[in-house]
Design brief:
The chain is of the alpha+beta class. It is built from eleven helices and 16 strands. It has three domains: 4-112, eRF1 domain 1 (Translation, Eukaryotic Peptide Chain Release Factor Subunit 1, Chain A, 2-Layer Sandwich); 122-250, Nucleotidyltransferase, domain 5 (2-Layer Sandwich), CATH 3.30.420; 270-355, 60s Ribosomal Protein L30, Chain: A (2-Layer Sandwich), CATH 3.30.1330. The longest helix is centred in the last third of the chain and has 32 residues, at 235-266.
C-alpha cells in the first residue's frame, strides 16, 4: 500500500514523469492479457514522449524498467484490483492498487496521483475484536489489509497460573485460553495490546459476550458491537462487515470538507476557491489547506505561477491534467487532497479548495 514515504517520492517533480494504471481482472483466464495490455500502454507513453520532443535515448531509459515489469511479472499471482506503475529520474515504482481505477497512461512534469486519492482517503487504521465464549482475536486492519495482533498480557493471578504449568503446557494456546476465561482478562489483554493507540475498534460477538466485555473495558474508541459470530466467516468477509460500521467514520473527513466548501460559498468568504486558475495559483503559493477535484474529469493544459492556465480539450505536447497539477502542488505544501465524482462538487465545478488565507 502507498505509505507516506512513497507518496512523498511521487510528489517530487520528475519532468518527464511516466504514470500508468492497469486494471487487473482477477477472474480473467488469459493471464497473458495484462502483460499485453501493459505493453500497449507503454507504446502510448512512448508516443506521448516523442510528440513532446523527448530524446529517444531518454525515452528508453524511462520505459526500460516498465518493460521489464511487463516481461517478468506473473500476473496470475496478482489478486489486486489494479497495478500502478511510475517511472522518473532514478525512480521506478510498481505498486498494487486495492481498488478499481480507470486504465490510463500519462506523461508530464508530475506523476499522476489523482486516481489514488479515493484509495488514500479510506486508508485509515482500525481494529477488529472478535469474541466468543471460547475464543478471542484482535486484528489491526485497513479497508484493504489486515493482520493479527498478539494478545499476551495476563493479570497477576493468570500469570501465576501460567508460570505454575510445565513448559510443555504453557504455550500461546494456553495463554489465550487463560485470557478468554473472563471478560476482565480479555479487556486487560486488549488494552495492553493497543497501548496508546486510539484507532476505532469494531467488536463482533453475541450480545451476552460483548456486553460483559464492554462492562470491563474503558476504551472510548469501541464502536457499537456487531452481533455476529466472527469465527464463522473468512477474514476478508469479516473486514467487509467491519467496513459497514467504519465507512461513516472513514468518509467523515471528506464530508466535512464539502460541507465547509458549501458553507463558505454561501457566505461568500474569501477562504474558498472554485475557479481552477485561482486554486492553481493558491496551491503554488502554499495557500491551499484542502483541495477536492473531480476524479472522473480531465482538463488538459499548462500552468505556471506567473501566468494563467492554458487549457485544452485534448492533450497537446507538454500538457498535463491541470486537476492533477492542483493536487500535486497543494500536497507538496502540506495540503489535504481528495477526489470525488464530478456530481459531488458544488456548482458542478471541476475543483474546490479551502484556503489558509
Amino acid at each position: 500500500m502507498f505509505d507516506s514515504a512513497t507518496i512523498a517520492c511521487l510528489l517530487k517533480p520528475a519532468a518527464p514523469a511516466v504514470s500508468l494504471y492497469l486494471p487487473l481482472a482477477v477472474e480473467q483466464r488469459d493471464v497473458r492479457g495484462p502483460a499485453v495490455r501493459l505493453r500497449e500502454l507503454l507504446g502510448k507513453a512512448e508516443s506521448m514522449m516523442q510528440r513532446d520532443g523527448i530524446d529517444q535515448r531518454r525515452v528508453q531509459e524511462l520505459l526500460a524498467p516498465l518493460h521489464q515489469v511487463a516481461d517478468e511479472t506473473d500476473f496470475a499471482r496478482h489478486r489486486e484490483r489494479a497495478l500502478a506503475l511510475f517511472s522518473g529520474d532514478g525512480f521506478t515504482l510498481t505498486q498494487p492498487v486495492p481498488a478499481d481505477v480507470p486504465e490510463s497512461v500519462l506523461v508530464g512534469p508530475d506523476f499522476h496521483i489523482k486516481p489514488l486519492l479515493p484509495v488514500l482517503a479510506l486508508h485509515r487504521r482500525f481494529y477488529i475484536l472478535a469474541l466468543s465464549k471460547t475464543n478471542v482475536r484482535l486484528l489491526v486492519a485497513t479497508p484493504y489489509t489486515w493482520q493479527d495482533v498478539p494478545l499476551e498480557f495476563l493479570p497477576p493471578d493468570a500469570q501465576a497460573e501460567l508460570d505454575g504449568r510445565s513448559a510443555l503446557d504453557a504455550g500461546p494456546d494456553v495463554r489465550l485460553s487463560l485470557i478468554v476465561e473472563s471478560p476482565k482478562r480479555i479487556a486487560a489483554a486488549v488494552k495492553a495490546a493497543l497501548a496508546d493507540d486510539t484507532a476505532p475498534i469494531v467488536v463482533f460477538a453475541d450480545p451476552q459476550v460483548s456486553g460483559h466485555f464492554l462492562k470491563q473495558v474503558d476504551l472510548r474508541q469501541v464502536l457499537e458491537p456487531i452481533l455476529f459470530n466472527p469465527f464463522s466467516v473468512p477474514d476478508n468477509e469479516l473486514v467487509e462487515k467491519a467496513m459497514e460500521r467504519m465507512r461513516p467514520l472513514l468518509t467523515a473527513e471528506l464530508d466535512t470538507v464539502l460541507e465547509q466548501v458549501n458553507a463558505r460559498l454561501g457566505t461568500a468568504e474569501p477562504t474558498v476557491a472554485i475557479r481552477l486558475e485561482e486554486i492553481l495559483q493558491a496551491a503554488s503559493e502554499g495557500r491551499v489547506d484542502t483541495v477536492v477535484v473531480a476524479e472522473d474529469q480531465t482538463l488538459w493544459g499548462q500552468f505556471s505561477p506567473d501566468g494563467l492556465p492554458n487549457a485544452h480539450g485534448h492533450r497537446a505536447p507538454h500538457d498535463e491534467d491541470l486537476l492533477n497539477q492542483a493536487v500535486v502542488m497543494a500536497m507538496r505544501n502540506g495540503a489535504r487532497a481528495f477526489a470525488v465524482p464530478h456530481e459531488r462538487l458544488p456548482r458542478q465545478v471541476l475543483a474546490a479548495a479551502l484556503l489558509r488565507y
